[in-house]
Batch of 3 targets.
Target 1
Amino acid sequence: MRHITLIAGARPNFMKIAPLIHAIQKAQRAGEDIHYRLVHTGQHYDRQMSDTFFEELNIPQPDANLGCGGGTQAEQTAAIMVAFEKDLMAHPTELVLVVGDVTSTMACSIVAKKLCTKVAHVEAGIRSWDLTMPEEINRMVTDSLADYFFTTSEVANANLRRCGVEENNLFFVGNVMIDTLLANRSRFVRPSAFDELNLQPQQYLMLTMHRPANVDEADKLQRMMHEIVNHVQGLPIVFPIHPRTAKIFKDLGIEDPNLHIVEPMGYLEFNYLVERAKAVITDSGGITEETTVMGVPCITLRDNTERPETCTIGTNELIGTNPDHIKPALDRLFSGQWKKGGIPPLWDGHAAERIVDIIVRK
């Protein structure tokens, strides 16, 4: 393949697209005849959720921004499909490469296949088996359409084989999210909050929550926050609040001297704090991967995970969405009983190079 269209739509995509762009540029410098076009669907339109990532991760400005932010799931999917169809018809390509599991991933895959264009899915095959999660539907639809499958683990490989994916289209390459982490670890930026809150390494916790199962019910969110705040042994909790969570949180009146609500952070600042935290409490998928590689204990407020290797190999533990499970997990953390964890195979910083090498040969 010589001509590729890369799709980015939401914050998790940017960390996965960046190493692919850098690997393509490296291949070009080595004399490979490969070209790319970057399309930003505009699914995330808040500056802190999108634009800063292009600057921090050294991604060139996109060739097109489709401006498809906002709306319901159906409205956004439709807007992306309409806009990307026009873009792809105006700029034909040999391969549309999508990453992850956001709405843009699914929508652009559908458009590409209907225009008889091959699709490659980076981070293919991961499954939570929970169809209440929009991301799971996005993954399943994308993998049902893709031509090439780039995977992060043997678990993902097994999932795809069960779905009938042929072995010669299945490529275990590692994790591009970790490519970005390792490439930028020395560039993490100390945020102003670190000094303003007088934080000390290993003496604070990071918290993120945004999933509907945790934040949409006010009573449940209040109970969760009560359990967290009251069982961290007085340590500061830094909570970069997701816009989705902020709308609900402000009406609950939850306050505590050790709970510090801050604005969403850029990639380099956020991971500076994660790397130095005693632990992370989250309902994110990507953060569980990053904490595994950085060796930081991770408590995940979810009933399932599409990244089981972060639990079986890494530092992550899935404790569910029942607030009563928070105290026992924190007790294990503070008693020094948390597992040390290891790093899954091929999470070594070279996944994107493997992907580009394969694409060049196709």
Target 2
Amino acid sequence: MATQLWTHEQIKLAFHLYCQLPYGRIHGRNPEIMALAKVIGRTADAVAMKMLNIASIDPAITSTGRVGLGNASALDRAVWDEFQADWERLAVECQLLRQKLDSNFDPEPAPENDALALEDFTGKTRQVLTTQRIKQHFFRRAVLSSYRGRCCMSGLSDARLLIASHIVPWSQDKANRLNPSNGLCLSALHDRAFDKGLITLADDLTVILSHPVKQSDDAFVKAVLLPLSGQKIEPPERFSPLPAFIAWHRNSIFVDSQSKLGPTQ
């Protein structure tokens, strides 16, 4: 099997896992890679090599001088483009395909506000909740792994306090809800400040503080948020924030931008 050409489904599953693993953990000894290799009938080293081929067409990887293995096929590139065009469909499709291949595979629950027990629901409601959890799980793993499991503003590395924060909110851009380039790994505090438009980013990924933050008399705000002004976030290993997403947040969410618009008519 290992000498046969990779199928479309196998490459999709390799890309799906590529998105969710830190770059430094892409090797044949990784248990997750070994588990995927088992269900698709490949060796773990072959799966790791395929993922490194995919890395060779990842702009966030190549822009840093890393080249992956440089042997990406036309089908590898097609799968890359397929995900870029429809992250939601592919994330759910790959997760369900993986579950079909390995009946023992059980995705960990999304830790963000996930207090619902799926067994309490039936039919369509259960299906919706399951799909929602798959989406949240994929986005969280993809974003946190891209930022090496650390808040890109504070360096906090306790996963219990980290959020996969959307740059353009979930409700505003359906096409990019699960796009890892629409995410930042932030602590719960920094996520809240970003979500409320109290902080934003410049095009070069330096932090911009709003006037309410700059003028705050709160000792905690002064100690934790004020030092961020003009500091660059820690860049991700993969899936760098797209400039269009950053500009949207700065123009549509940042409170200083909103104050310049004046009252709505």
Target 3
Amino acid sequence: MQNKLQELTDKLYNEGLAKGKQEGEELLAKAKVQAEEILAKAQSEAERIIATAQKQADEIKTKTASDVKMASSQSIAATKKDIENLIVSKMTVEAVKKNLTSPDFIKEIIKTVAEKFTTDGPVDLNLILPESLKNDLEPFATKELAKILGSGVQASFSKKVAGGFQIGPKGEGWFVSFTDETFNQLISEYLRPATKKILFG
């Protein structure tokens, strides 16, 4: 009786042990599969994050390179423009200022222009001259020019006109400008393309 009880106890113990061992192995295998799945998923997510980061880095690199190239191009263009303006200004402003503040030179231009207004007969003219040249030009404008043209000339002097003059038919409300400012603009428009080509090809 004692032996049979022992055998039964051993049998139950061995079966329970075997069953527990089997369940443990199954759980271990299942856990291993789950761990591999989690690892694979984590690796896939890591690769996706790296790929996204690389793409963003490439986009930033491309944009930065483009921005640097654009900024560089704009800077070069602005520098060229400054050089061009400096040279054209130096070439024109000094020469124009010198001539259009010369009373003799202004007299010659006024005569030439005024004669064009009177080709079809006497026309009274309005003249606006530099205030700084009033002493030199007033006798010419009010007396000599009227005799030359055979018509009336009304001369006024303005501080707004630094050099040159403005002329137009009296009472018509319009005039032609031959001031230093208009000459500078006109001459620089012609000089700019040539200067640009000489400097930068």
